[in-house]
Amino acid sequence: MKILIICNYSSGLYKFRGMLIQELIKQGHTVRAIVPKLEDPNEIKEENNLKKLHCGLKRIPMERRGMNPVHDAKLMFEYYRTVKKLQPDLVLTYTIKPNIYGGFVCRLLKVPYAVNITGLGTAFQGNGLLRHLVTAMYKVALKKAKVVFFENAENKGTIWKCKQRHAENRDVIVEARIIPKEKTHVLAGAGVDLEHFKYAPYPKDSEITRFLFVGRVMQEKGIDELFQTMQRLNKEGYKCMLDVVGGFEENYSEKIRKYEREGWLHYLGYQENVRPFIEKCHCFVLPSWHEGMANTNLECSAMGRPIITSNIHGCLEAVEDGVTGYLCEKQNPEDLYRIMKKICELSYEERKAMGLAGRKRMEDIFDKKKVVEETINILAMEK
Fold it and tell me: What pLDDT is recorded for position 192?
């Protein structure tokens, strides 16, 4: 079978779908992908990694953010031209623009397609014109999809009940009458590669508690609440550091320099390999406002580190509150302070036990091999 994948990042495709691509090719399928034409060295490197998997690539211009009618019309035309030329037996789409414009094209050309909604993003946060527009576009794009995957599941109680799990993102889509529930399927995110993110022994006992944040430094990741909490903890005499790994929005450059001078922030910029930084930390923190499925939570748990993250879907699934880490209220610096203070006051053995429990949770629920197998089985059923 000829399979075409449409996505908005080569790096994300390789990192989160590489194992799926590898397994599809192993089963005898031909896999190609449409990726944005970017000159970013990191993206080019991941394109080369995809080629090593024998995944063919078609690079096209794409503006991943915003809605520019002219640019988006050009993007849809490129999708149309490519799909018509390649004549795939199945198209898989990931993220909002590929989902919508790829869905339009597949409907038009009568090509079977499956959609993966990794997160609804800011368009569905409010109730304004943008939400109504995106809802209308999704209705058209998803109507003929074979299946719509979601990566955001609600955990009922302390046991993950695969047959009974519900998805907040799915509920939004279903309640908006975009697609019927029976055409949806919830995955445990993209899963985490347990061999790549192996358990790392917990750092030796130290007077300093080292927290870690991995992600883009931006407001919606809860970075302001995190910075505010770190300042407060240090002023109150708690010995703690914050390592920040990832790029930053321009308006944060001065704040980063200021907090580095204060001595509690260590800014490391973008890092291709985050594992050494996870190994060093005592606790990972992600107080995000919204997520599809936060892979950094999964990766840090897999390596045996306690997690502090927001009590929102896309984050809470990774944590058994009080056992593998703690959940905090989003956009609530007081609650984040309370929980980070609690981590500082836990004994070495208590923190270590949380990390071990987190690793087991990843093995039981989020093993990428199981997610890949489940995805392929569902696609086979929907032929």
Answer: 96
What range defines the domain where residue 106 resides? 2-191+367-381
Handedness of CA 299, 332, 95, 149 (dihedral sign): positive
Element (H, E) at 120: none
Residue 183 three-state SS: helix
Same domain, 327 and 293: yes
Residue closest to 343 by CA, chosen among 298, 294, 319, 308: 308
pLDDT at position 383 is 60
* Tally of CA atoms within 13 A in the half-sphere of 349 that contains its CB: 0
Low-confidence ranges of the chain (pLDDT < 70): 66, 119-128, 152-178, 382-383
Domain count, the chain: 2
pTM: 0.84
Same domain, yes or no, for 168 and 259?
no
Same domain? For 355 and 372 the reply is: no
Based on the fold, state whether residues 264 and 349 are members of the same structural domain.
yes
β-bridge partners, 116: 94, 149
